[in-house]
Amino acid sequence: MKTKTWKVIANTGKHADLESGVERKEIQKPTHISARDFAHWLAPESRIDDNALQSLFKQ
Q: What are the percentages of helix, strand and coil residues in the chain, rounded to 5?
């Protein structure tokens, strides 16, 4: 199965808006990382794939 790549549209430090083609989703900041780290991981206009996104939520 091909890994989906998401483009980061916006990141407020509390949640990020992502899109992949016509699909969009909003993700909330995991509680175990700081807003600064979350903004660093998902900087606006960056791209992240599903595997990297899942690793962000693992403790």
A: 25, 35, 35
Q: How far is CA 1 from the centre of its chain?
A: 20
Residue 30 φ/ψ region, left for φ over 0, alpha for ψ in the -120 to 50 degree band, beta for the rest: beta
Question: Nearest CA to 29 among 17, 7, 43, 13?
Answer: 13
Dump pLDDT digits (tens) for 9-27.
999 999 999 999 999 999 9
Helices (H), the chain: 35-41, 50-57
